Amino acid sequence: MGRPLFYDIIEKPATSCIVTICSVIWFVIQKKSIGYSQVGLSYETAVEGHYWRMITSALSHISVLHLVFNMSALWSLGVVEQLGHIGLGTAYYLHYTLVLVVFSGVLVIGIYHLLIARFKIDYFRRVTAVGYSCVVFGWMTILSVKQPSSKLDLFGLLSLPISFAPFESLIFTSIIVPQASFLGHLSGILVGYAISWGLIGGMNNYWALTMLGWIIVVFVFSLKKSGAYDISFLEIESLSDASLPSVRFIGNGRTLQASAVPLSGVEVV
């Protein structure tokens, strides 16, 4: 008889929470018949300022098979939380999960922009991505560098050497699931290597909380500005200077407005 699941949940608290959140979101999506276009991230929606989709797309799954595959892989990769003795652990896992969600999303949109602007491949304007795969592939990559002797267990049936898992899974999913986002998965792998090799580092509780705070602010304001969902307590409007954004919190009548700061020698791209 195997070890009770309860002990694994205790040893992988962050992984358990993420699996639960993704599963609940999948249930809500099915219950309310929400489609890819409503929660997914694409180049067009990013250009329109729907930055909130970077979070909703990562946590959303439309098909149950997609959810089960990602959560099964993520559960196996949760071993990162048990490796505090080699500098990993739960805090490391949480810190760099934030990094993987944001940086892999930014990178895939950057790749789309390059393909569209440089190579004139307009197909990528409307490609809509959903799923936690970018983060899963990122953790596969980090673990393959930090703990190459580990194995990736899928569905409790298939076990892959972690050192080959990122690219094996990249090829496998591309063949078995043609709709899978090759560039999205590749972005997760590239960000994973950047973290593993120290190109992206220095995360601690302060920077993680700061990053999380900015994610929440951008999420709420971009969600409100896009008009996709009604946030009744927050209103974005322009005051005397149309170039300056202002924010009003309904109920107390207070309004905030940014001040103009002259910039010298700065190009806004």
UniProtKB/TrEMBL annotation:
It is a multi-pass membrane protein. It is found in: Membrane. The keyword ATP-binding does not apply. It comes from the Eukaryota. Keywords: Membrane, Transmembrane, Transmembrane helix. InterPro entries: Peptidase_S54_rhomboid_dom, Rhomboid-like_sf, Rhomboid_protease_S54. Residues 49-200 form the Peptidase S54 rhomboid domain. Signal peptide: none annotated. Its main location: membrane. Pfam families: Rhomboid. The chain crosses the membrane at residues 12-29, 50-73, 93-116, 123-142, 154-175, 182-200, 206-223. Belongs to the peptidase S54 family. This is RHOMBOID-like protein 13. It comes from Camelina sativa (False flax). The gene is LOC104749390.
